Amino acid sequence: MKTGDRIIVPAEINGYGRDLRAIITEIEEFFGATFVTVIFTEPCPEACGRTGGVYHDFQLITE
Asked: What distance in Å separates the CA atoms of residue 31 and residue 19, rounded to the nearest whole number?
């Protein structure tokens, strides 16, 4: 995965209750963990244009 990749953030980790499409904006490594920051692009009023992040890149689904 790299910055700019389109991904799907599963419902279990995004906080919106359904899988959402997003674009990776930043990938950081610290203390042995990977933190991925995304901008949601899904047409979901609560999420579209908002940023989110997950601590484990293996939880994300590449499109």
From this structure: 28
